[in-house]
Amino acid sequence: MRNATELLGFIRDEVKEHKETLDPDSPRDFIDAYLLEIEKQKSNEGSTFHEENMVMSTADLFLAGTDTTSTTIRWGLIFLIQNPDVQGAKAKH
Ligand code: HEM
C-alpha cells in the first residue's frame, strides 16, 4: 500500500508539471495527450476523460510494464549466461 501511494503521488506530481508546461501544439507523451483530450471532451457530460482516470491509467501502464519487462530482461540475462556461445565472442579452448 505504501508503494502504491508513493507511485500515485509521483504520477500526480508529474501531472502537475505537465499541466504547467503543456504545449497543445506539441504533446510530449501520454499525459499531455490525455490532458488535451480532457479539454476536448469538456462539454461532453458522459466523458470518461477526467483527471482521476488519467492518473489511474498511467499507474496501470506502470504496473503492467514494470514486472513483465524486468522479468523478461532477467530471463534474457540467464539464457545469455548459460549459452555464452551466442554472445559473439569465440569460445576459448
Ligand atoms: C516483456 C514485457 C511484457 C510482457 C511479457 C507483457 C505481457 C502481457 C500480456 C500476456 C498481456 C495480456 C494479458 C491478458 O489479457 O490476459 C498484457 C496486456 C497488457 N499489457 Fe503487457 N506485457 C509486457 C510489457 C508491457 C508494457 C511495457 C506495458 C506498458 C507500457 C504493458 C501494458 C499492458 C496493458 C495496458 C495490457 C492490457 C491490454 C488490454 O487488454 O487492453 N505491457 N501484457
How is the topology of this model organized?
Layout: H1 2-21, H2 30-40, H3 51-82
Can you describe what's shown?
This protein is mainly alpha-helical and 93 residues long. It has one domain (2-84). The protein has helices spanning 2-21, 30-40, 51-82. The longest helix is centred in the C-terminal third of the chain and has 32 residues, at 51-82. It starts with a helix and ends in an 11-residue tail after the last helix. Bound molecules: protoporphyrin IX containing FE. The site of protoporphyrin IX containing FE has 7 residues, from helix 3. Protoporphyrin IX containing FE (HEM) binds next to helix 3.
What tags apply to this protein structure?
mainly alpha, 3 helices, 68% helix, 0% strand, binds protoporphyrin IX containing FE
How far is the N terminus from the C terminus?
Answer: 53 Å
Average pLDDT taken over every residue: 93
Note the overall shape: elongated
Q: Which compounds are bound in this model?
A: protoporphyrin IX containing FE
**What is the number of independent domains?**
1
